[in-house]
Structure of VOC family protein:
Amino acid sequence: MDTTDLKLKQCFLAVDDHDKALYFYVEVLGLEIRNDVSYAGMRWLTVGSPLQPDVEVVLEPPGASPDISEADRDALARLLAKGLLRGVIFTTENCDALHARVREAGVEVLQEPMDQPYGVRDCAFRDPAGNLLRFMERSA
């Protein structure tokens, strides 16, 4: 089987408030809206970088699957509120400038920009829902 044609299309982040998430990802980070559709009582919201037109971040409620139990959905919502669900890592050409912009928006800072021994400068924040977001700049 030839797998050279595989590419990432979507990744998923749980959010508890689509409007807060939309503001953060579009107005603060500068991503663009790809889809914002209501369907069957749900909201399909995707954002992405203009530099990566084929990759989308889906912002969905915790436990959005129709097959999940109410107890599991509640457990995921509690984990999200504690900031215990995984996040994503973005690359940037200027970690310090991005850090300043995100910090000015009042987002929770987890790590100030710092040089890492594995060849990147990075920083970390929590989005408004509590997801971990890291921003890394490759060292010269």
Summary: The chain has a mean pLDDT of 91.
